[in-house]
Amino acid sequence: MSAILATLNLGVERRGAWTSIGRSGIDKRPVPHRVMARTHGLEGDLVANLAVHGGPNKAVYAFAREDAAFWEQELQRPVGPGNFGENFSTEGLDITNAEVGEQWAIGEALFEVIRARKPCRVFAGFWEVPDLVQRFIAHGAPGAYLRVLREGTVGAGDPIDIVKKPGHGVTINIMLRALTSERHLLPLFLNAPEMLPKHHEKARHWLAAQKKEIGS
């Protein structure tokens, strides 16, 4: 099966006690038109809290419909496109095992897989499932944040072509595990030159702490 962008989803404003700043753009809805992907994000997308969402290193969030199907069974409720806060709902693409630095050509634009999503309390509050963060992490298929390497329009139905695979093996699944429940995996980050400097720094700090502990 060829990979495609099943739907392109843009945020609408939601308010509730579960939001961190009084409003949130986590609720994404499919749109029928093509959208310009800019370095900072998708035109027309609502990003309420710019301190933790959006910007060049979280320009677009991609989540596989295959993973959404798992959560439909797990939660016993429908999970429509955009319901996990994703801009790109994909089909036929293994996002969980995508490597950091992997590049995808979609429509006129070029994207780079840059980091795993770490879910927050807003995510759990929006779904009204208090333990969803822990369950999401344990499942290990968090979707990926993308950078925009080449701006251009994208739209539902566009093929997704993987044009670069770095080959270092540091996947989205490994990154999530290293940042949450399996800190001993952090040194693997140093094998991925495409990774953000702050994540390399986390790896170095962990190694330094281990060395100090062994020497004490």
Defining traits:
216 residues; three-stranded antiparallel β-sheet; 5 helices; globular; alpha+beta
Quote the distance from N terminus to C terminus.
54 Å
* Overall pLDDT score: 92
Q: Largest sheet, order of strands side by side? A: 2-1-6-5-9-8-7-11
Judged by helices, strands and strand pairing, the structural class is alpha+beta
Are there runs of 5+ residues with pLDDT below 50, and where?
Answer: none
Number of strands: 11
Give me the oligomer status: single chain
Helix content: 10-25%
Order of helices and strands: EEEEEHEEEHHEEEHH
Output the number of helix runs. 5
Query: What's the story with the biggest beta sheet?
Result: 8 strands, mixed
Layout of helices and strands:
Blueprint lengths: L3 E11 L9 E7 L4 E4 L2 E2 L17 E5 H11 L12 E4 L11 E4 L2 E8 L4 H7 L4 H8 L4 E7 L1 E3 L5 E5 L7 H8 L17 H19 L1
Parallel strand pairs: 5-6
Antiparallel strand pairs: 1-2, 1-6, 3-4, 3-10, 5-9, 7-8, 7-11, 8-9
Polypeptide structure, described:
The structure is a single chain. The chain is an alpha+beta fold and 216 residues long. Helices cover 25% and strands 28% of the residues. It has helices at residues 65-75, 121-127, 132-139, 172-179, 197-215, and strands at 4-14, 24-30, 35-38, 41-42, 60-64, 88-91, 103-106, 109-116, 144-150, 152-154, 160-164. The strands form two sheets. An eight-stranded mixed sheet has the order 2-1-6-5-9-8-7-11. A three-stranded antiparallel sheet has the order 4-3-10, with no helix packed on it. Strand 5 (60-64), helix 1 (65-75) and strand 6 (88-91) form a beta-alpha-beta unit. The longest helix has 19 residues, at 197-215. The mean pLDDT is 92.
